[in-house]
């Protein structure tokens, strides 16, 4: 019989083959428009969106409430149709949700009737991954999110930050090419938020996943990203892009660097004037 560590080794081997064999997570958006129509009116939610997110890049979309951030992310997730334009992942049209795109949204979307471990294993079970291999992967993630002791707990027994960690682990256990995150830390207290941001960066470095992250928190956008895309409202559109020139290693003291503070001022100014 296969042991857990053998099962994990097999899965890791499969993963390394997967990640070298093909593109992993390049998103191309060209001339994308989104118009919501009702019987009596039309509303242009997104206008002329052009954006490319490279393999393993961490890009944040920053913008005021109502500018269309969630709409754009939901379209990339395949949960919403685009009105016109092109949208591809590794050259393939996105026409619906898919396992290669993991999602973490605000508010905890865990299944309340499943334990923490079962929540993490959910997508793997759907894919038909055998029990032992599933167990190996969920144990790996329980360690990373430091919730080994809560493997058999139910979501209602966890704090907000703990639930959000499980949601991230659940999305990443499927080894998606792209991780789509819509204000995932918006409801957390300041300290927990910082811990979650650091954990996310650690995971991103290890997993080589492309991340498209949404926030309206300027500090969070700078701390996490390699690139920040700023959107404006009425209609929802991209107004500017910034490359974040900060050390790859993002520790707490990055927030004190002159470059960080300068960028913070610039972004605040930009958002104020839009
Ligand atoms: N299903 C829908 N039908 C009609 N209008 C919609 C629909 N979903 C969103 N909108 C409109 O599209 C615009 C963008 O909404 P969206 O949720 O994408 O904004 P957002 O940038 O994510 O805002 P927030 O920061 O508050 O989450 C809003 O004006 C909203 O009213
Ligand atoms: Mg939103």
UniProtKB/TrEMBL annotation:
Coiled-coil portions: none
GO molecular function: ATP binding; ATP hydrolysis activity
Entries under InterPro entries matching the protein: AAA+_ATPase (IPR003593), ABC_transporter-like_ATP-bd (IPR003439), ABC_transporter-like_CS (IPR017871), ABC_transporter_ATP-bind (IPR050166), P-loop_NTPase (IPR027417)
Disordered: annotated span: 1-23
Keywords in alphabetical order: ATP-binding, Nucleotide-binding, Transport
Pfam families per the UniProt record, alphabetical: ABC_tran (PF00005)
Keyword field contains ATP-binding: yes
Keyword Cytoplasm found: no
Limits of the ABC transporter domain: 27-260
SUPFAM superfamilies: P-loop containing nucleoside triphosphate hydrolases
Name of the featured protein: NitT/TauT family transport system ATP-binding protein
Organism: Paenibacillus cellulosilyticus
